[in-house]
Amino acid sequence: MTKFFRLLITLLCSVLVLGGVLYGCGKKGDPRPSGIAPPKAVSDLKVSLADYGVVLRWSIPDAKGDIQKFKIQRSEMEAEMSCPDCPNEYSKIADIALNDPSLSRAGSNVVSYLDSRVKAGFIYTYRIIICDIMDYCSEPSHSAVVKI
């Protein structure tokens, strides 16, 4: 009985230790090394209607930084089904490099993008995420809304 009891205690302790190691194996979160700040978020996103779609215009917060690309996200809702208090569900509509020809430049740090895939009778909400050359990304910008 003592050998069985000792084996049972050893097995139970092993399971507890293994469970503790697997459960608490580190912080779950941003894998960015400490001391490396993400790019600053866009703070001045503006949208406007154009003949062929919606023009998004924003300033690059740090024009001298290591900005690699912009992730453009859009939420789409039928105007008749408008729900101001409902959360927006965003989907990525573009992943554009800083030197991509689909971005128009105005000066050294202002860019614009034309979203031509819009439909009448819809409300579109946009936001921008900036990513650097290490693929660390900023927080999403504030939302900008336009009704077609």
Short structural summary:
The protein is mostly beta strands and 148 residues long.
Describe the structure.
The protein is mostly beta strands and about 150 residues long. About 15% of the residues lie in helices and about 40% in strands. The chain has one helix at about 1-25; strands spanning about 45-50, 55-60, 65-80, 90-95, 105, 110-115, 120-130, 145. The strands form 2 sheets. Strands 1-2-6-5 form a 4-stranded antiparallel β-sheet, with no helix packed on it. The protein has a 4-stranded antiparallel β-sheet with strand order 4-3-7-8, with no helix packed on it. The longest helix is centred in the N-terminal third of the chain and has 22 residues, at about 1-25. The model has no long low-confidence stretch (mean pLDDT about 85).
Write the layout of secondary structure elements.
Elements: H1 2-23, E1 46-50, E2 53-59, E3 67-78, E4 91-97, E5 103-106, E6 110-115, E7 122-132, E8 144-147
Antiparallel strand pairs: 1-2, 2-6, 3-4, 3-7, 5-6, 7-8
Features:
148 residues, mainly beta, four-stranded antiparallel sheet, 1 helix, 38% strand, elongated
